[in-house]
Amino acid sequence: RFAELHLDQVQRAFGDTVALKGMDLTIKGGEFVALLGPSGCGKSTALNCLAGLLPLTGGRITLDGKRIDDLPPEKRGFGMVFQNYALFPHMSVRRNIGFGLSMRRTGKAELNRRVDEAVRLVQLEEHQHKFPAQLSGGQQQRVAIARAIVLEPPLVLMDEPLSNLDAALRLEMRTEIRRLHQSLGLTTVYVTHDQEEALALADRLVVLRLGEVQQVGSPEEVYAHP
Ligand code: ADP
Ligand code: ADP
């Protein structure tokens, strides 16, 4: 686990639109940070810059002092969970979860052991041999989460992961995500436009507005001075 991830004046422009106007942020290992703000404020852009899916147009990102903004996504090795979970439809739950490990040439015994553990963590034991189309939305979301955490990534990036679920399931999965974060000691950056969700989940909130950090603080601090 890393000590500090640092965004230093991170900028991203799309033509004339400056989606991030020099974002400064330090994330400590083990923290759960929510990026919060209205649609269009730059949340997804920030997450994609962290993931390596979008090159920066200015600034830098360092992990324990080493620059990572010039590394491709696979070299950063961060786990990603998006709202469209993009599971492989022709693969069983177990194979979906094990895919990343098999790409890393993990041996069969180790692969089976880690897939077993991930299946257990997201409570999909009964469904592990099914295909994605046979699962509910919440179960598919659990597969997506298991697929990210099975690789034991230094950082898990989540972009509105619960927005396609109904209200009851959103609450259930919220608890689940918090539980996994705590029991695995994950470092999580979580994008949402839902203030209540951010308050419930995060140790620290980063409120973005028009591509700039407007406020950073604990849920109590941000809630007291909205
Ligand atoms: P959020 O995730 O907070 O809704 P985004 O990061 O998606 O915000 O977008 C921030 C700004 O950047 C918006 O003005 C959006 O229109 C613009 N933007 C995002 N992606 C692109 C893109 N691929 N091309 C052009 N403009 C983009
Ligand atoms: P099926 O062979 O019908 O897909 P399962 O759903 O039981 O059956 O999955 C088979 C096994 O494949 C599991 O034990 C799992 O650990 C393992 N597995 C996961 N990903 C891969 C992979 N990419 N290649 C081979 N085995 C994998």
UniProtKB/TrEMBL annotation:
Signal peptide: none annotated. GO terms for cellular component: ATP-binding cassette (ABC) transporter complex, substrate-binding subunit-containing. Residues 5-226 form the ABC transporter domain. One of its GO terms (molecular function) is ATP binding. Keywords: ATP-binding, Nucleotide-binding, Transport. This is Spermidine/putrescine ABC transporter ATP-binding protein. It comes from Lentzea aerocolonigenes (Lechevalieria aerocolonigenes). The chain holds residues 4 to 229 of 351 of the full protein.
